[in-house]
Structure formats: C-alpha cells, structure tokens
Design goal:
The chain has about 100 residues and is mainly α. It has three helices and no strands. Helix 2 runs antiparallel to helix 3.
Length: about 100
C-alpha cells in the first residue's frame, strides 16, 4: 500500500496527465462534425467536473491523515475509475 505522500504524488501526476489529455481532446473535438461535437461536449463536461472533484479530493488528502485519509482515498479510487472510463469514452468517440 502506498504511503500518503506516494498517493498524493500519484494523484498529482495523473491529474496533470488528464489535464493534458482533456486539452488534446478539446482541440480534436473542435474539428469534428456537429453531431460528434455535441456528444463530446457532454462527455467533456462530465470529465472536467470529475477532474475538478478529484482535485478537491487531492486537496483534502493533503490536509488529512489516518482514518480520514483512508476514507477519502477509497472515495478517490472510485472517482479515479470514473475519470479513467470517461477518458476512454472520449477517446473512443474521437476514433469513430
């Protein structure tokens, strides 16, 4: 199991990567047909919202320890999976 500091580093690194991917997705989405853009806009809004939630979780993790850290960590794992799935969904829409 990763330490609190290792977990924070992991989240920070992944958030930076997701931010880059979201920016790239937006650039590619701007070049799509209206139908595809509409689908992408919806998914991108969801993805950005979840990314922002993850940033808030990260901020909470920085301020907590012990049992509180473990609870937030479990919550963030679910959110992590949601974001990962959202990135995958957007990627698949762009490949259609």
């Amino acid at each position: 199991m990763a330490t609190r500091e290792e977990y924070i580093d992991k989240l920070e690194t992944q958030l930076r990567e997701w931010n880059k991917q979201i920016d790239k997705f937006q650039d590619r989405a701007d070049k799509q047909t209206q139908d595809v853009k509409k689908r992408l806009d919806t998914r991108m809004k969801e993805l950005r919202k979840k990314r922002d939630e993850m940033q808030k979780k990260l901020d909470k993790i920085r301020d907590t320890s012990g049992d509180a850290f473990e609870k937030i960590r479990k919550d963030s794992e679910t959110l992590w999976n949601d974001i990962r799935d959202g990135v995958s969904d957007v990627r698949s829409i762009l490949q259609e």
